[in-house]
Design goal:
By secondary structure, the chain is an alpha/beta fold. It has one domain: Rossmann fold (3-Layer(aba) Sandwich). About 35% of the residues lie in helices and about 15% in strands. The protein has a seven-stranded mixed sheet with strand order 3-2-1-4-5-7-6, with helices on both faces. Helix 4 links the parallel strand 4 and strand 5. The longest helix has 18 residues.
Length: about 260
């Protein structure tokens, strides 16, 4: 990944999502991601760019096998404090995952694709290690809130200044170029990012609302279709003589003259 969080950035990241509007946004984002993952006991989940572990926290008590990987030692330290030995943590990049093919049922990229210098390679790696599905959560390029973040970054540099936002169209185009035509499902949330409360949360969770292209957060699920290379086999027919004697019981009989 191109951008690595230092100690201060790791502290600020957690502090933003602890309360208020940040917590409200995180809960909606996690709820959307969970609905795409369909977590089940015994399933293996890899969080690529797990950060401090906020995106893994909702799955800890569900009986899943959880693994996280992140390039930032500071973020991993925070994740280790949060989970102890309940999550297997590794240091590494999304573009070069140290895992075998099909090691996990689900690979998750939650707010990590934005900080990758090679997002297409990160998706390829995620598809390589995931047996069933890849789930992506990213900032929407065309949401008003994210446009304001990018504009603000020109005058006051922060982590968003180093990130790359995506649109639904861009993600789908990237998936097609990498994987061909595969099943893709997407929804958005944070249609009303400056409002909070139980009523707003209920409206945000409506499917009709989540089909908007303009929500601040995009959740997308990809189901990679295995591709097999086949090689034609040459058939060698056996030519039998018409008058070739029969085998088996017929040999034991004589024809009367």
């Amino acid at each position: 990944m191109a951008y690595e969080f230092d100690f201060k950035a790791a502290q600020d990241y957690d502090a933003f999502f602890e309360k208020g509007r940040g917590r409200h946004c995180l809960e909606l984002e996690i709820k959307l991601i969970s609905s795409l993952i369909h977590p089940m006991p015994g399933k293996r989940l890899l969080d690529i760019g797990c950060g401090t572990g906020l995106s893994l926290e909702p799955f800890v008590d569900l009986g899943m096998s959880l693994t996280g990987i992140d390039p930032s030692a500071y973020m991993l330290d925070k994740a280790a404090e949060r989970f102890g030995h309940r999550v297997d943590l590794h240091r590494g990049t999304a573009e070069d995952l140290p895992f075998d093919d099909n090691s996990f049922d689900t690979a998750l990229l939650f707010f990590s694709l934005e900080f990758s210098d090679r997002p297409a390679k990160a998706i390829e790696e995620a598809c390589r290690v995931a047996r069933e599905q890849v789930v992506i959560g990213v900032h929407n390029r065309y949401a008003l809130q994210n446009m304001a973040r990018r504009f603000k970054g020109f005058f006051s540099p922060d982590m968003y200044s180093c990130s790359r936002f995506f649109s639904v169209w861009e993600l789908k185009t990237m998936m097609t170029s990498i994987l061909g035509k595969v099943p893709v499902k997407w929804r958005t949330t944070l249609q009303f990012p400056f409002l909070s409360g139980s009523l707003v949360s209920s409206v945000e969770c409506l499917r009709l609302i989540q089909w908007s292209y303009w929500g601040g957060f995009i959740g997308m699920r990809i189901k990679p279709v295995p591709k097999f290379r086949t090689r034609p086999m040459a058939l060698k027919p056996r030519n039998r003589k018409i008058n070739e004697p029969a085998t088996g019981l017929a040999l034991g009989f004589k024809v009367k003259e």
